[in-house]
Amino acid sequence: MRRPQSNKDKRNIQGKNKGYTKKPFSKERTPSAVKKTKPVPSDPDLIRLNRYVANSGVCSRREADTYIEAGNVTVNGKTITEMGHKVKLTDIVKFDGRLLNPQKKEYVLLNKPKNFITTTSDERGRRTVMELISKASKSRLVPVGRLDRNTTGLLLFTNDGDLSKKLTHPRYGIRKIYHVELNKNLTMEDLKKIQTGITLDDGPIKVDEVSYINNSPKREVGIEIHSGRNRIVRRIFEHLGYDVKKLDRVIFAGLTKKDLPRGHWRHLTKQEVINLGMNQ
């Protein structure tokens, strides 16, 4: 229990406070009057080295810090181990001797409709596939391979030059499946000719697989092929006297049109990007 103050205690307290005058808070010292320092604007042309390395697809930003500290990264020929070091996009940055590109790699899949040409621009003013993916990315994406103006289906776009080359090079034999609709029924004799292999003007061609579409007329055919020769599917059937009325690419390098309506696009998932790398 707190004891009551005695007269002696009261006198001591009064003695301590004697002559004390509380000073008003100075206007110059009020928080509102304290001068604020403006933050130094960052240089938009400079980015942290770990971000540069991560954007190049080598590793995550956290892992990049470890590699930088270990001396795996050079900038303009000089090894950099300093955390937080900033570089310009014009600097020459190498990881274990390999030149890096800081542009984030992007992959966009389009279900192409008819009447669009596969090119980045057209002098004749025709509509290009670039119009269809104009809002997909701020980066400059280019189509991987080509589809004819009247051919529909899957078309991949990316700024990953290495992957693009591998997906279009015959050496890697990327799997492509088309749904073909002809002007008349395909005879069994011609079906077997295609299976065995035929010779076109630019040499022999053999498909991986060809068959009628289940529960559809005999004029509808599915064909799997690895060749990247120009208009190869159309030329195969034209060589045998058929006109191709519709040509739709339904599978490309393991990618499908599932949940992707005609004329629409979507970004690839991380797993799909990994699978593309495994298919190389």
- Relative strand content: 15-25%
CATH class (first level) name of the largest domain:
Alpha Beta
CATH fold-level name of the largest domain: Alpha-Beta Plaits
Task: Let me know the largest β-sheet.
Answer: 9 strands, mixed
**Rg, please?**
34 Å
| CATH architecture tag of the largest domain | 2-Layer Sandwich
Number of discrete domains:
3
What integer is the average pLDDT?
86
Count of helical stretches: 7
State the helical fraction.
Answer: 10-25%
Number of strands: 17
CATH superfamily of the largest domain: Pseudouridine synthase I, catalytic domain, N-terminal subdomain
Q: What distance lies between the first and last C-alpha atoms, to the nearest angstrom?
A: 84 Å
Please state the structural category: alpha+beta
Your description of this structure?
This protein has 280 residues and is an alpha+beta fold. It folds into three domains: 46-99, RNA-binding S4 domain (Structural Genomics Hypothetical 15.5 Kd Protein In mrcA-pckA Intergenic Region, Chain A, Roll), CATH 3.10.290; 105-173 and 258-280, 2-Layer Sandwich (Alpha-Beta Plaits); 175-252, Pseudouridine synthase. 22% of the residues lie in helices and 24% in strands. The chain contains seven helices and 17 strands. The protein has helices at residues 7-17, 49-55, 61-70, 161-168, 188-196, 232-239, 270-278; strands at 46-48, 73-75, 78-79, 86-88, 93-95, 98-99, 107-112, 142-143, 152-158, 176-182, 198-200, 203-205, 209-212, 220-225, 244-252, 255-256, 265-267. The strands form four sheets. Strands 7, 8, 9, 10, 13, 14, 15, 16 and 17 form a nine-stranded mixed sheet that branches. A four-stranded antiparallel sheet has the order 3-2-5-6. It has a two-stranded antiparallel ribbon with strand order 1-4. α2 packs across α3 (61-70). The protein is elongated.
